[in-house]
Specification:
Blueprint: H1 16-22, H2 42-55, H3 69-81, H4 84-99, E1 108-117, E2 126-128, E3 133-142, E4 148-155, H5 160-168, H6 171-174, E5 180-183, H7 194-202, E6 206-209, H8 226-235, H9 249-268, H10 277-292
Parallel strand pairs: 1-5, 5-6
Antiparallel strand pairs: 1-3, 2-3, 3-4
Helix pairs in contact: 1-9, 2-3, 4-9, 5-7
C-alpha cells in the first residue's frame, strides 16, 4: 500500500526544480524557539497561494487538497508584512541577471503604469476620468530585459508624472548604477517638465522620452519601451491580476512580486511555461521567428 503524500497536480503548482530554487530563500523557524510543528508544509502553502494567483479564484474557493485558505492567506499576509516576498524576488532577479551574463546592478530602467479596475473597496481606490476606470494603478519600474525593479500600487486618480516620483524616489540608493530612464510622452508633458527637473536635481537621473510616430494610429511598439508592456503581459497571465481584488495596496504589490517569483523560478529551473491555446501558440511561434532573424 502506498503511504506517500503526493503533491497536488495543478498547472500552477511548483515543480521539484522550481521548489529547489525557492526553498532556500524562505524563512525557517528554529526548533529552539518552541511552538507547534507545522501542520501544512511551506511548499503546499505556496502551491495554494499560486493557485489563487494563477486561477484568479477567491481565497475561500481553493480546492480541499491544498492548504486551508485561512492558513495560506495568513502566510501570504505575514510574508508580505515582513518583506519575505520582496527579498525572495530581489534575490531571484539578481540570479537571473547573473545567469544571463549581466551585472546584478542594472544601469537603465523603464517605468509605466497600468490602470486596474477594482470593485472590492479598500485602500487607495480612486477614479480615472480619462479611462473611466475605478480602482488603482500599478506603477512598475523594470530594467531592459523586463524583470521588475520596483512596484508601487496607488490610486488610479494619481497622474503618471506624480506616480513616477514614487517609483523613482531613492532609486539610486537601491540601484546605484541606474542613471538613465526611458519614458513615453505621458511622463514628459510640454507644459509640465517638473518630472525631468525633479529627477535630475533630486535623484541624479536622466529622463529620456521615446516619442511616438504621429503618422501611425493605434498601438505602436516603441523602442526600449516595449519591455515594460511585455512585463504587464507576463503578470496579467495570472488571472488574479486581471483586476485588483486586494483590499490592501501592500497585498496588491505582493501579488505582483509572487507572479514574478514564479516566472523567475521557472527560468532558473531551466523550464518553460508552455503556451496554452492557438493564440498563445501562434504568438510564441512568431516570437521565435523574430528572435531567429
Amino acid at each position: 500500500m502506498c503511504v506517500c503524500v503526493c503533491k497536488p497536480a495543478y498547472d500552477s503548482s511548483l515543480t521539484d526544480a522550481q521548489w529547489a530554487v525557492i526553498e532556500p530563500l524562505l524563512p525557517t523557524r528554529s526548533p529552539a524557539l518552541g511552538g507547534r510543528p507545522l501542520v501544512h508544509s511551506r511548499r503546499l502553502v505556496i502551491d495554494t497561494i499560486l493557485y489563487v494567483l494563477v486561477s484568479g479564484c477567491a481565497w475561500r474557493l481553493v480546492p480541499h487538497d491544498l492548504a486551508p485558505w485561512g492558513t495560506a492567506y495568513r502566510w501570504f499576509a505575514a510574508w508580505t508584512a515582513d518583506g519575505t516576498w520582496a527579498r525572495v524576488h530581489d534575490t531571484l532577479r539578481d540570479r537571473v541577471r547573473v545567469a544571463d551574463g549581466r551585472d546584478p546592478q542594472p544601469s537603465a530602467a523603464v517605468p509605466d503604469s497600468q490602470s486596474a479596475r477594482s470593485s472590492e473597496g479598500g485602500e487607495a481606490i480612486g477614479y480615472d476620468a480619462g479611462k473611466r476606470v475605478p480602482g488603482r494603478k500599478r506603477h512598475l519600474l523594470v530594467y531592459t530585459c523586463g524583470l521588475l525593479l520596483r512596484t508601487i500600487v496607488h490610486s488610479v486618480s494619481v497622474q503618471d508624472r506624480a506616480g513616477a516620483k514614487l517609483v523613482l524616489g531613492d532609486l539610486r540608493t537601491l540601484f546605484p548604477q541606474v542613471g538613465l530612464v526611458w519614458v513615453d510622452g505621458g511622463y514628459v508633458h510640454s507644459v509640465d517638465a517638473g518630472l525631468v527637473r525633479w529627477a535630475h536635481e533630486q535623484e541624479n537621473l536622466e529622463i529620456v522620452c521615446v516619442p511616438r510616430n504621429a503618422d501611425v494610429k493605434g498601438f505602436q511598439v516603441l523602442p526600449r519601451r516595449w519591455v515594460v508592456e511585455r512585463t504587464f503581459g507576463w503578470i496579467t497571465r495570472c488571472r488574479r491580476l486581471a483586476r485588483d481584488y486586494e483590499r490592501k495596496t501592500a497585498h496588491a504589490e505582493a501579488m505582483i512580486q509572487v507572479a514574478m517569483i514564479r516566472l523567475m523560478a521557472v527560468r532558473l529551473a531551466g523550464e518553460e511555461i508552455e503556451p496554452r491555446g492557438p493564440i498563445e501558440t501562434e504568438a510564441s511561434r512568431r516570437l521565435a521567428e523574430d528572435l531567429a532573424d
